[in-house]
Specification:
It is built from seven helices and nine strands; from the N terminus they run H-H-H-E-H-E-H-E-E-H-E-E-E-H-E-E. By secondary structure, it is α/β, with parallel strands linked by helices. The protein has one domain (4-203): Rossmann fold, CATH 3.40.50. The longest helix is centred in the first third of the chain and has 14 residues, at 4-17. The N and C termini lie far apart (44 Å).
Length: 206
């Protein structure tokens, strides 16, 4: 049985050390654009977007900026943010854990592509309602998640990293209670390299 607690605690270090490697191997084919476009269709243009676990900003920041949106990127790996700042100085960049965000104001959309699932099960349950509170009315949330509740491991080069997920039913329940009018879930989308994607839209603020 993997030592999930220890692996999770080490995941930030892995990404900090592997920023250049990650930048070199990150796919730029645009396979995620089908979901980014669905997300953007729900937002005003230009929209103010928060990207959590943004990495080096390429290709997602590049795509959003090219479509005329304002972008704020957050990542807990300082080396990732250094690369992002150098490549896309027109965006705002912050080094922070996505569970303890600074006061950045409200956004039209929040996304976390291959980032949110590095949080633990308990962290995900705790933070999802807080993300809704950082959105303007009508806002949208886009996440990649898993297919069932549990913890697993992945790899960045030769290093092990942590992944976790709630069940799809629990994600939907949390987000509906947070005020989203519609929550769509696609398990292992064959058009998106098998990513399981969650898109919550039409936030109704109290």
């Amino acid at each position: 049985m993997p030592e999930f607690k220890k692996i999770k605690a080490n995941t930030q270090r892995v990404y900090s050390c592997k920023a250049e490697f990650w930048q070199s191997v990150r796919s730029r084919t645009g396979y995620e654009n089908i979901w980014l476009d669905r997300f953007l269709e729900q937002l005003p243009k230009p929209a103010d977007i928060l990207d959590l676990g943004c990495g080096t900003g390429d290709p997602i920041a590049r795509y959003l900026l090219a479509h005329g949106h304002a972008l704020t990127g957050v990542d807990y790996a300082p080396t990732m943010i250094e690369i992002a700042k150098a490549r896309y100085p027109e965006a705002r960049w912050y080094v922070s854990d996505m569970t303890v965000l600074p006061d950045l104001g409200l956004f039209d959309g929040i996304l976390s592509w291959d980032g949110f699932f590095h949080l633990s099960i308990s962290e995900q349950r705790m933070i999802l309602p807080q993300y809704a509170k950082r959105l303007n009315s009508g806002g949208a949330l886009l996440l990649t998640v898993g297919t069932q509740e549990g913890e697993v491991t992945g790899y960045i080069d030769d290093e092990t990293v942590y992944h976790a997920s709630l069940s799809p039913a629990e994600y939907i329940d949390i987000l509906e209670h947070a005020g989203f009018a519609d929550v769509a879930y696609q398990a292992e989308d064959p058009d998106c390299r098998g990513r399981s994607v969650l898109l919550a839209t039409g936030l109704k603020q109290p």
